[in-house]
């Protein structure tokens, strides 16, 4: 369930700060999707990752 505390106005301000235009009619959907994404990212904080080695997803340009 998305965070009900994340308001459309907060999403509008964040978009303005990073220079992204979001039409007013799209703001409720964007706010809902952003809140859902943040909730999923929060779940990652609960994972025990101790002892796992990082994996390079994007190698340096000189490799490969």
Structural features, described:
The protein is mainly alpha-helical and 64 residues long. The protein has a domain at 8-44. It is 45% helix and 0% strand. It contains two helices and no strands. The chain has helices spanning 8-18, 27-44. It is flat and about 45 Å long. The mean pLDDT is 86.
Biggest sheet descriptor? none
Round the mean pLDDT to the nearest integer and report it: 86
Using only CA atoms, what is the Rg? 17 Å
**In DSSP terms, counting alpha (H) and pi (I) runs of 4 or more, how many helices?**
2
Assess the beta-strand content as a share of residues: under 5%
What is the 3D shape? Answer: flat
Protein structure class: mainly alpha
Helix content: 40-55%
The count of DSSP E runs of length 2 or more, i.e. the number of strands, is 0
Could you give the distance between the termini? Answer: 42 Å
Q: H/E order of the elements?
A: HH
Poorly predicted runs are: none
């Amino acid at each position: 369930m998305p965070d009900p505390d994340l308001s459309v106005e907060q999403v509008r301000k964040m978009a303005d700060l990073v220079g992204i235009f979001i039409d007013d009619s799209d703001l409720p959907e964007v706010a809902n999707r952003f809140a859902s994404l943040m909730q999923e990212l929060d779940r990652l904080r609960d994972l025990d990752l101790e002892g796992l080695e990082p994996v390079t997803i994007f190698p340096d340009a000189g490799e490969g």
